[in-house]
Write a structure and sequence with these properties.
The complex is a heterodimer of chains A (about 180) and B (about 550). Chain A is mostly helical. Helix content of chain A is about 80%, strand content about 0%. Chain A has one domain. Chain B has helices spanning about 5-45, 50-55, 60-80, 85-95, 105-120, 150-155, 160-175, 180-205, 210-230, 240-250, 255-265, 290-295, 295-300, 310-320, 325-330, 355, 380-385, 410-420, 455-465, 475-485, 540-555; strands spanning about 95, 125-130, 135-140, 145-150, 340, 365-370, 370-375, 395, 400-405, 435-440, 440-445, 455, 470, 515-520, 525-530, 535-540. The chains are: A mainly alpha (about 180), B alpha+beta (about 550).
């Protein structure tokens, strides 16, 4: 009789553990989703910002049509991109073109002194940082989820209930790691 | 292993519970002492003293009664103190909301949002304290309001990355909940201490009845300060280290945080300002004290911050850098400066749309300048031209009449219409509308003619600490000459009888309310200060000269 009670007690304990584990895994997965939506919000902000930036820059750097057009094109591609892979590529390209725009803008002192440009640059720097932080948060959460899914004994629950590893949001080339540097 | 927020949540409620118990105990002890002494006093009056001592005893019922009183008083104290505690603390610190047009404030707002993203979406409110001291603080309440505050000095002296790590540190206090603990503890006693000590300064020197209140206040002040230092036992010094660590986790930048702490510790941290007693809420304690800088049993018990050098060296270890490198960098850092805008071009023209009501603005004014007729300009632009003086000749193309600027009826009429709404500020000298211009990242009201500027007190503080500009040869020469004259003791006092006192543009009082005096005894720059709103009027170049002189003093101190 006592043995039966002990077995029953153990079964209840295991069940409770399984429930708790499942719930924490769900929590991790929700955090990952939340992290991804944060990145999305920030990317959209960046897309909204770029037309204004190009508009202001146009007034000062008429000779740099090429650079400006490249930025606009890259932005359009980023807006249209879908799926994690596609977004990653498009955003990386956009970052590259923005960086070259900022490098060229260095040669235009009047543009750098423009009040509207100063404000837009601050917004851009902030948005780039936010994208970086959102990516950092997302990757941290992905890491937590992936570790939880693969470690024993939580992996049992994860496999049984069909949890899948999430994908990191990584920058493709290591030299792309730095956000466009805007100097004041 | 990431720390668990639920665990921290539990810790937090336990600490606040302890504070509450402590409060009850404090009032219990006070009530017992008062009760026993009163009882003793009355017994002595009733009968022979020795007899009374023999009868002296306290029953269980009496103790229970005293306990209930202590519970009620302690509970009321707790409830009243936590009522709107964040607003009370912010008011005591004279913290103000951010100015949405000031570029430094915009940057701070953006950094708050960035850190918010890094934490996964927790929102923070931002405030600034207009002082040249360097410090930052965080307060939060039970309803989830979380406020991060910085001083103008900090905004001016730290770069973006350093400011980000400081905000990360304060955000960490809010996330882990120890900000709520310190806010509760601070609002229990220290806040009253801070209020009393400022009242004390005010009451000093008064006699009679006021002096009686003053003495009572003195007793309450010192009791509450004593109790609050006991309450500091509940504030662990370790939480600062933990907040530093979380800030590094959020921003991945230990070096910038080390630099920020180093810069803060090397400058004035706000000792002597209102609210400097609320040390637990700051990133670095405002007052330098031996207690804070030591590591022993008493320090661990009563200090609120770990020694600053050990905090910096932990961070430097993380960044694989050394103290020598940090000091070297600090010594050789040079702020990037732009030339001060002397030949000002207004950034914002008058909004005259309501005057024209759909009619196109015609450019029909010419101006005689340097031997040539320039223009034509529309009326609003004419007002904004920096080189148009009061006696400059202007010509109206339509009727061909040439007059001096101040003689023109049309211009007078235009001005009258322009300021008919009453919201615009008028130059106290020229009586025309002040333009808004950006100066050191902040909007300033400046007269387009005489180039004088109207500044609020906070604005002056802001400009004196911000290092954006270097000044021209002319400004430097005038500044040097003024100081040389002053140091030889030749500066003459302002004769208020002959001085033409100005009307305050902001108060719009019909009587002249601006007092003319020197900025300080050390800097003999003549300014006009409104006695009511404390706005300051600087004549052309005076603001620049003052900044140059103060910068000169600072440079010689280094």
């Amino acid at each position: 009789m006592i043995v039966l009670w002990i077995i029953l007690g153990l079964a209840v304990l295991v069940l409770l553990w399984a429930l708790a584990t499942y719930n924490s895994l769900v929590q991790f997965r929700e955090n990952v989703k939340n992290g991804w939506s944060q990145i999305d919000v920030q990317l959209k902000r960046r897309h909204d910002l770029i037309p204004n930036l190009v508009e202001v820059a146009k007034g000062y750097m008429g000779h740099e049509k090429d650079t400006l057009e490249k930025v606009i094109k890259a932005r359009q591609m980023a807006v249209d991109a879908s799926g994690l892979e596609g977004k990653l590529q498009a955003e990386n390209m956009l970052t590259g073109t923005l960086r070259s725009l900022m490098a060229v803008a260095e040669n235009y002192p009047n543009l750098k002194a423009d009040q509207q440009m100063i404000r837009l640059q601050e917004e851009l720097v902030s948005t780039e940082n936010k994208i970086g932080f959102a990516r950092q948060y997302y990757n941290d959460e992905v890491n937590r989820l992936n570790v939880a899914i693969q470690t024993f004994p939580d992996s049992f629950i994860a496999n049984a209930t069909g949890f899948q590893k999430a994908q990191f949001f990584e920058l493709i080339a290591p030299e792309e790691r730095a956000a466009p540097q805007v100097k004041f | 292993m990431p720390y668990s927020f639920t665990q921290i949540e539990k810790d937090k409620s336990a600490t606040i519970g302890f504070v509450f118990l402590f409060l009850i105990l404090f009032y219990f002890v006070v009530a017992v002492v008062l009760y026993v002494s009163f009882k003793y006093y009355f017994l002595v009056q009733d009968s022979d003293r020795y007899d009374a001592l023999a009868q002296f005893s306290t029953s269980g019922a009496e103790i229970t009664g005293v306990l209930i009183v202590a519970l009620i008083v302690g509970g009321l104290h707790f409830l009243i103190s936590i009522q709107g505690m964040v607003s009370k603390i912010l008011a005591a610190l004279r913290a103000k909301p951010l100015d949405s047009r000031d570029t430094y404030h915009i940057m701070f707002r953006n950094i708050l949002d960035e850190v918010s993203v890094a934490t996964g979406g927790r929102k923070f409110e931002g405030v600034v304290v207009a002082t040249s001291a360097l410090n930052a603080f965080a307060v939060s309440d039970f309803e989830g309001r979380a406020v991060i505050g910085v001083t103008e000095g900090l905004l001016a002296r730290l770069n973006r990355a350093q400011l980000e790590t400081v905000v990360g540190h304060e955000a960490a206090h809010i996330l882990t909940g120890d900000c709520l603990e310190t806010t509760v503890i601070t609002s229990m006693f220290e806040l009253y201490g801070a209020m009393l000590s400022s009242a004390q300064n005010f009451a000093e020197g008064s006699r009679g009845r006021a002096a009686g209140f003053f003495a009572l206040g003195w007793v309450i002040l010192h009791v509450s300060l004593g109790v609050s230092s006991l309450l500091k036992m509940f504030i662990s010094r370790q939480r600062e280290l933990r907040a530093d660590a979380i800030s590094v986790r959020l921003t991945r930048n230990p070096l910038s945080l080390a630099e920020a702490l180093y810069t803060i510790s090397r400058n004035w941290r706000g000792y002597g300002l209102p609210g400097d007693g609320l040390q637990a809420i700051y990133i670095v304690s405002p007052a330098f004290s031996q207690l804070e800088e030591e590591e022993n049993f008493f320090s661990d018990l009563f200090a609120t911050h770990p020694p600053i050098h050990s905090r910096i060296s932990i961070l430097l270890d993380m960044a694989h850098a050394s103290m020598e490198q940090l000091e070297d960098k600090y010594k050789h850092q040079m702020p990037v400066k732009q030339p001060a805008p002397e030949d000002l071009v207004p950034t914002q023209a008058y909004d005259i749309s309501h005057l024209n009501a759909g009619k196109p603005v015609s450019a029909n004014w010419e101006v005689f300048h340097n031997g040539l007729w320039r223009g034509p300009f529309p009326m609003d632009q004419l007002m904004g031209l920096g080189w148009v003086e009061f006696d400059t000749y202007v010509r109206n193309i339509e009727n061909g009449r040439t007059v001096r600027f101040f003689e023109s009826e049309e211009i007078k009429k235009f001005n009258k219409q322009l300021h008919a709404t009453g919201s615009a500020l008028l130059c106290p000298l020229c009586r025309i509308g002040l333009n808004e211009e950006m100066y050191k990242g902040s909007p300033v009201s400046r007269c387009p003619h005489c180039l004088g500027a109207l500044l609020t007190e906070d604005c002056v503080t802001k400009f004196l600490i911000r290092d954006d500009y270097f000044f021209s040869e002319k400004i430097r020469a005038v500044g040097d000459a003024i100081m040389e004259h002053h140091l030889k003791g030749r500066t003459q006092a302002i004769d208020l009888k002959t001085a033409n006192l100005l009307l305050c543009p902001r108060c719009k009082d019909p009587k002249p309310q601006m007092l003319r005096n020197f900025y300080t005894v050390a800097y003999p720059i003549e300014i006009d200060r409104c006695v009511f709103c404390h706005s300051i009027w600087f004549d052309k170049n005076e603001l620049d000269i003052l900044q140059y002189l103060i910068g000169r003093t600072k440079a010689s101190e280094l």
